[in-house]
Structure prediction request, 401 residues.
Amino acid sequence: MPKHIWILIIGMAINVTGASFIWPLNTIYMHNELGKSLAFAGIILMLNQGFAILGNLIGGTLFDKIGGYKTIMLGISISMLSATVLAFYNSIVPYMILLMTIGLGSGMVKPSMFAFASSAWPEGGRRAFNAIYVAQNLGVALGASLGGFFASISFSLIFVANAVTFLLFFIIVLFKFKPIEQRMDHVAYTGGMDYQADKGKDKASFRALMILGIGFFISWIAYVQWQSTISSYTQELGISVSNYSTLWTINGVLIIAAQPLVKLIGKWIPSPRVHIYIGNTIFLFSFIYILFAESFASFVTGMIILTLGEVLVWPAVPTLADQLAPKGKSGYYQGLINSIATGGRMVGPVLGGLVVDHSNIHYLFYGLIFLLMVPYLTTYLYDRGLLKQKTVSSQAEQHLS
Prediction:
């Protein structure tokens, strides 16, 4: 793996470590510390993710216009300043406002990092996306583990650690990312060009991305329950905040430990489409299993199953998005697919909170198991229009010749 990709990996891991001090504990903080309902907490998380969607779209577009370095610097500056203020003001009103601005800044960074990795290592293919994905989850493991420890002392420590970690990422970007950008082929990833002579193909690629995105959206609605409703459910079962945070440490460590297996599967089955089929099936089994979970050990097992699914699904979708992207729109397509994922993270806590508040969490699990049938269909159908257009174009060329 090239040296400059390792710099991106380190930067992404530090950035996500900072974010992971807070996000697994958001619902617990608002519900248990501030006394708000699960539905109210879900709405606040929805606002956070709504601004992250805006950040995804802005970040992806700016990447194609002004490059990755400036876009990431802008995004991390917004997050760092917001986190600094949050360290001093964390009652419900400033908490709500600052979560939105942190969402905006972090949303700008994420698609830019994926597009940066793809552009800096174009021959890496899926490995470039997988590298950033693994870096994210190393950050999740570190942040969630430390966040749980800090929370057991004081929630205020989490906010301070969050600000300090964002500052560290800012310093790395400031001094290390610009040389990476200077090594890259400018035309390969910026938008000052005629993107696609064949506008029909451009539209077909966009439609394919949207169909693929529907399944991705559903998968995230299911997955995000582990960060929202399931977190509060574990509290009701008497599982401590520290133990709940340990679940995310296990998630991050297992993602890293599973990489040899992922690499082996990639050699045996190179198709990202098939990875989604396999991973989604594992997602289904994880929710069937936790229907009967009542102990910490059961949730550990459920998390292990869930993680084995995500190591296949999460890198596969941005890889397919990159394959669909017309030249010069890599950042835009990464912004779109990341905004779709963020949309799932936004809607998921609200839907989950409403279902649990008005019935119980088992009804939520039944609904999620049903919804997880959708990604099979969207993954099968997403590129049918492109294949049909390719066939028509081929027949037309043969006719002309």
User: Anything to note?
Assistant: The chain has 18 helices and no strands. Residues 187-197 have pLDDT under 50 and may be disordered. The CA atoms of residues 123 and 169 lie 26 Å apart. The two ends are 44 Å apart (CA to CA).
